[in-house]
Amino acid sequence: MIPNRIGIAADHGGFELKEYLKGKLTENGFEVVDFGNNRLSSDDDYPDYVVPMARAVALGDLYRGIAVCGSGVGACVAVNKLKDIRACLISDTFSAHQGVEDDNMNLICLGGRVLGNSLALEIVNEFLSAQFSGADRHLRRLAKVAKLE
Questions:
Q1: Cα–Cα distance, 52 to 31 (Å, whole number)
Q2: Residue among 69, 76, 88, 109 flagged as catalytic
Q3: Is 76 a catalytic residue?
């Protein structure tokens, strides 16, 4: 797993935010793998883009992933169906780092019609810079969650 290799994916509801984040992350030295959609298309479906990206995260081909749809809810529902994905819909910076530190979150879901570009970038930066604590209580809880898969 390459720590600066990040996946990103979005449907039409998250397309503009995806493009913005991709540009900013690239400027900041991240290798961003874009799973699409690569053009604005009002009749596309978020699972077609966010699920392949989440699979790459689960396999360890990507360090972490960013899924964007209109609200972030649909993308979050879809990617959490996959084994070894721990994704949350995030709209604040505290949850962005706390979700990684305590719950080893490896994929973040954002609402392209909900968040402004600046806040979304702050959230993503917090998510990408956070590290899992590995504390015994968190490992114990994650083991219980893994049994559900």
A1: 17
A2: 69
A3: no
Torsion angles phi and psi, residue 76, rounded to 5: -65, -45
Residue 1, pLDDT > 80, answer: no
For domain 5-147, the CATH architecture is: 3-Layer(aba) Sandwich (3.40)
Q: Which pair of structure tokens corresponds to residue 82?
A: 């996959």
Across residues 88-103, what is the average pLDDT? Answer: 98
Structure tokens at 17: 């935010």
**Amino acid symbol at 73:** V
% of the chain surpassing 90 pLDDT: 97
Q: 102 to each of 31, 50, 110, how far by Cα in Å?
A: 26, 24, 20
- Residue 84 token pair: 């070894």
Spans of all domains in the chain: 5-147
Give 98-111 pLDDT, tens digit per residue.
999 999 999 999 99
CA distance 81 to 69: 16
